[in-house]
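Predicting holo structure, AHG bound.
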Amino acid sequence: MKGIKTLGQFIIEKQADFPYAKGELSRLLRDIGIAAKIVNREVNKAGLVDILGEAGTINIQGEGQQMLDIFANTQFIAALTSGGECCIVATEEEEEFVPIDSPVSKNAKYIVCIDPLDGSSNIDVNVAVGTVFSILRRKSVEGMATLQDVLQKGTEQVAAGYVIYGSSTMMVYTTGKGVNGFTLDPSIGEFCLSHPDMKVPQDGKIYSINEGNYVHFPEGVKKYLKYCQVEDTATNRPYTSRYIGSMVADIHRNLIKGGIYMYPTTASSPKGKLRLLYECNPMAFIIEQAGGIASDGLNRIMDIEPEELHQRGAIFIGSEKMVRIAEQFMADYS
Ligand code: AHG
Ligand code: MN
Ligand code: MN
Ligand code: MN
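Done. Tokens:
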């Protein structure tokens, strides 16, 4: 067998790169990998067992929860609790952050912000879904960690990643030293290094946005979309439009092929739809580490000072040249 490297082997090998190399962050990443495999197992057989459809409950976002939203949430919290390296989980599916109140965990140094299942409206139709996570180091030194420990800027993240449950299942993560992707080999049940040192192309020709909201977009976005659609051979326009409706899958595709993903403010989501702590920040960290950029249209996502757990924001993310041009349209027209 030639040169297979599992996620576990890779994490141990890279442990010395971490600023506080005591093995805790390595174990935390391993715990997330384990929960991801369990969620993958359920997502894969979702049509066969009674786990599809709505749970009949509404989360703090005002969205109907799917059964798999709740399942994934429970699995990640369970893995992070038994792993013992995480003192708080802040999740899309719970109004308040979840303190891990066991004797080992309450003094743990890390906080995980997580979107357990991204794109949950796509589950019933067998389209790729994902998980997104952001890892922060707690600031307080003793007692139970607090909300202030969670409300840190994106620049403070020590690691971030996503899992995509697609035609194959992958985990992609960064600890601030580049981005690496691992594909799950179901025959051995391991994530194996398949995409070392991922880089987003500087320029691209794919734009991803829910264009149905066009009338409600800011003027800068409307003008930028028209720019994407104009013919100009020198700049490869018109661009191609691709929108899956699972942010993880849309950004993953653009990371590999080059492109821009946008979820701007709209009339129904005046602050934007995606959540800063567990959607925008981790994706911004990954894309910046891969050589791209992430902006709210005017400012760098990772410089935004969070004020609330479920804070939302607009996002423009992907290939550097494309995002810079979109920002220019925002500056000129919005
Ligand atoms: P989630 O399923 O975690 O609530 O996230 C939904 C997000 C994201 O995955 C996706 O890109 C976006 O919502 C789609 O929104 P629209 O249906 O408004 O386009
Ligand atoms: Mn949701
Ligand atoms: Mn999401
Ligand atoms: Mn979700």
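The chain has a mean pLDDT of 94.
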